[in-house]
Structure formats: structure tokens, C-alpha cells
Amino acid sequence: MLFAPAPKHLKDGADAEQIAATFLQKKGLKLIEKNFRCTHGEIDLIMQDGKNLVFIEVRLRTQNNFGGAGASITPAKQQKLTRTAQRYLQIHGERPCRFDAILMHSTEINAVEWIQNAF
């Protein structure tokens, strides 16, 4: 049985997440989990930064027609991420945490913009 290749936007998204993870690991963060999913949504990367757990949203936007990568993290998206993080903490235990964003305009390591405490 032959499988069709993944659509380009899915491959680009997975590539962006891998680049973001590599970038953050070089900055000293430790990868805990990728693509945590629950009924509330998904968190792209969960990493450890010292004593803090960091929930990271990775956004790739090659076009700025609709405001770019940062503008795509709307209040509704932030709420979904917050509920998903709360579920993660219920499962794995409460601890200090923050929400970061990785914004990219291409799938290149030099295209990474890291925003700590994004919301």
C-alpha cells in the first residue's frame, strides 16, 4: 500500500517545531515533551528552563498577509493553550511555569524569534 506524502504545510510545521526545539536546547532548555494533546488542544513543545516548566507555541508564517506569526496567537488560541497546560499540570503535577512563543518566517534556524513570557 502506498501512502501519499504529508501536505507541505504539515511538513513545514513539523520542521519548524524541530528547529525551535533545537534552538531552545542550545539556549539551555531541556525538552520534556512534543505535541502534548488533550481534549482542550495541543502544546507544541514542553521544556524545562531551570525550575520552570515552559509551554511553547511554535508559529511559522511565511507570509505577513494576516499579520504574521505573532498575530496568529489570538486571545482564543491563548485560552486553548492555557486550558491545555492546566490539564498537563493536573496529570504531571503543579509547578512554576510560563508560556513562550517561537515565531518564524521560514524554516531556517536564523529565522527564530523567541518571546519569553509571551502571554
Quick structural gist:
The chain has 119 residues and is of the alpha+beta class. The chain has helices at residues 8-26, 68-71, 75-92, and strands at residues 30-38, 41-49, 52-60, 97-104, 112-115. It has a domain at 29-67 and 106-113.
Structure notes:
This protein has 119 residues and is α+β, with helices and mostly antiparallel strands. The protein has a domain at 29-67 and 106-113. It has three helices and five strands, in the order H-E-E-E-H-H-E-E. The radius of gyration is 14 Å and the shape is globular. The relative contact order is 0.20. The mean pLDDT is 89.
Write the layout of secondary structure elements.
Elements: H1 8-26, E1 30-38, E2 41-49, E3 52-60, H2 68-71, H3 75-92, E4 97-104, E5 112-115
Parallel strand pairs: 3-4
Antiparallel strand pairs: 1-2, 2-3, 4-5
Brief descriptors of the model:
119 residues, five-stranded mixed beta sheet, 3 helices, alpha+beta, single chain
Give the overall shape, derived from the CA principal axes.
globular
Mean pLDDT: 89
Give the count of helical stretches: 3
Low-confidence stretches: none
Oligomeric status of the shown chains? Answer: single chain
Strand-residue fraction? Answer: 25-35%
Main structural class:
alpha+beta
Biggest sheet: strands, sense, closure?
A: 5 strands, mixed
The strand line-up of the biggest sheet is 1-2-3-4-5
Number of strands: 5
Order of helices and strands: HEEEHHEE
